[in-house]
From TrEMBL:
Alphabetical list of CDD domains matching this protein: PriL_PriS_Eukaryotic (cd07322)
Domain of life, source organism: Eukaryota
Family membership: Belongs to the eukaryotic-type primase large subunit family.
Pfam families noted in UniProt: DNA_primase_lrg, DNA_primase_lrg_N
Chain ranges of the DNA primase large subunit C-terminal domain: 111-245
Protein name (database record): DNA primase large subunit C-terminal domain-containing protein
Record keywords: 4Fe-4S, DNA replication, DNA-binding, Iron, Iron-sulfur, Metal-binding, Primosome
Length: 263
């Protein structure tokens, strides 16, 4: 199929298509790229028109019914509840370093999540060891241990809190010295490049991630990181740190099973 080269930018960028005199010659098995580009173009135009109609007419008409629902969608998380680890066995302290290296997203490497299965006693021990380096054991017991027990539903209203979704993490504004924000939003480009390099993201994949960050597409940046680290696509995108962890564990277990069968 012969089409203008600008209709298949991903094929051109990855040098997977023959170009001659401004036209790209797309093979049958590459047509999906053309369709995706056309779909995104039509969707973008439709969203612009919808937004215009929404702001000029529908928002006011539906202010008591649809408007609150629609305008909350951008910050809503409708995915699985990760308040408890369901897919994998409980994790012990001795497993953290290895599992973090293989399956934690960048944010979890800086702020551990209870949704991966760490028990309360182990969480307290882990954070006490980490925080004591900076604030001392006595101050940790007085100022920080309560918050950890509270998150596990053992203090206060005894609510078993759900770990934050990507959207909530991105929208948070950590203070100086805090580590609970989204690294793709909060890190300097230099620090982000270094952190991604340690995860094994390099060359073109690294530049693609940085490009998404520069355009403030932080979840897309995390999704590209996942794909680069695991060597597989993530069509659903990353919407929650524990989703990253769960999907990573499944992929690694499948890879281990394939190795045992074929090896």
């Amino acid at each position: 199929m012969k089409v203008p080269f600008e209709q298949v930018p991903d094929l051109v960028a990855s040098r997977r298509v023959f170009i001659l005199k401004g036209y790209a010659y797309v093979a049958t098995n590459q047509v999906v790229s053309l369709l995706m580009t056309q779909y995104r173009s039509h969707l973008s135009k439709a969203l612009v028109l919808t937004n215009r109609k929404w702001t000029t007419m529908i928002r006011e008409q539906e202010k008591d019914r649809l408007t609150p629902i629609v305008e909350a969608l951008s910050s809503s998380y409708l995915g699985p509840d990760y308040s408890q680890a369901k897919d994998f066995a409980e994790m012990s302290l001795k497993d953290i370093d290895q599992v973090a290296k293989s399956s934690f997203p960048l944010c979890m490497r800086h702020l551990f999540e209870k949704g991966v299965g760490l028990k309360l006693d182990d969480a307290l021990a882990f954070w006490k060891a980490e925080f004591s380096r900076k604030v001392g054991a006595e101050r940790f017991d007085k100022e920080y241990a309560y918050s950890i027990r509270h998150n596990y539903g053992k203090e206060g209203k005894r609510t078993d809190y759900t770990p934050y979704s990507c959207q909530k993490i991105i929208s948070s504004t950590p203070g100086v010295g805090d580590h609970h924000g989204c690294p793709y939003r909060q890190f300097s480009e230099e620090n982000l490049r270094a952190a991604l390099g340690k995860m094994g993201v390099g060359n073109r994949a690294l530049e693609d991630v940085i490009d998404k960050v520069r355009n403030r597409h932080y979840q897309l940046a995390c999704t590209l990181t996942f794909e680069a680290v695991h060597g597989t696509s993530c069509d659903a995108g990353i919407n929650h740190p524990n989703q990253y962890f769960s999907d990573s564990k499944r992929i690694l277990e499948l890879q281990d099973a394939d190795f045992l069968i074929t090896g």
